[in-house]
Amino acid sequence: MNKVLARGRILSGLLISLGWGASLTAAAAAPIVTIDGSSTVFPITEAVAEEFQKAKKGAVRVTVGISGTGGGFKKFCRGEIDIADASRPIKKSEMEDCAKAGIKYIELPVAYDALTVVLNPENTWAKNLSVADLKKIWEPEAKDKITNWKQVRPEWPDMPLKLYGPGTDSGTFEYFTEAIMGKAKASRPDYTASEDDNTLVTGVSRDKGGLGYFGYAYYAENTKKLAAASIDNGKGPVAPSEKSVEDGSYQPLSRPVFIYVSEKALDKPEVREFVDFYMKNAPQLVKEVKYVQLPAKVYSTNLEHIAQKKLGTVFGGKSEVGLKIEDLVKREGSL
Asked: Which of 67, 148, 211, 285 has the fewest Cβ atoms within 10 Å of its own Cβ atom?
């Protein structure tokens, strides 16, 4: 198991270890940094939160929830949390919700993810999947029609096709549907959905005909239970990996992931200290939880944006498919 994730998973509202010798009374009195949102970004934020709390020896508490990117933004734009984990940029409707509530924010990219299509290890026929295959499987018109692997390709076995994926509040769901179907949230509804990626891991690992998708870290943590499909975008099949994300060949399923911190929350010393700690320690911890770290320049630029309170988003309320790391670096530098 991934050594960071093995330290102990945070569930919504559950606190990470507060440090040796910290009393319950002291813990209750400690200031709290509240975070919620993407299950994809969760492993990174979990790792940072744990290291931060160890460094602070219980003087600050951090809570990390998993309500999906959309769920996190709802709470963030109501002023209920300090930081939102997001596996896609903030949308126009969410920008409007935040504006109505007077919530201003700083957008901070923290890593790149290889959104991974996973199979049961006994699946020997679908190791290479084209974008057209994925579209045929997941498009809305496939509902109650494409239910067998043989219906996807005639040479594949006559076996029930069981699908597992994120819920509709998930940024991963939105990115996948936009990348594969060309329209966010355009998906068949007849699949097992969950905001908890571990539920999806369990489903695919127990079903020989199973297929699902989620962030790379959850595949990396479960390589004995799952197989990852290589994706063919017209230039030959490419497997998800650090190298294929860095060189831009894993398309269209590689994407940046973010945290958003509210301007008001940054005025709290504990939040400012946590976000600074996040940017300074992200390169090591991102790699440790099996995501792709960004160039050092991005993290240093993030620290400048925090110090200068550079507000807003460089995405204009839209997600973008196929954005490469070097393009993100140029864009973030221009904010």
From this structure: 148
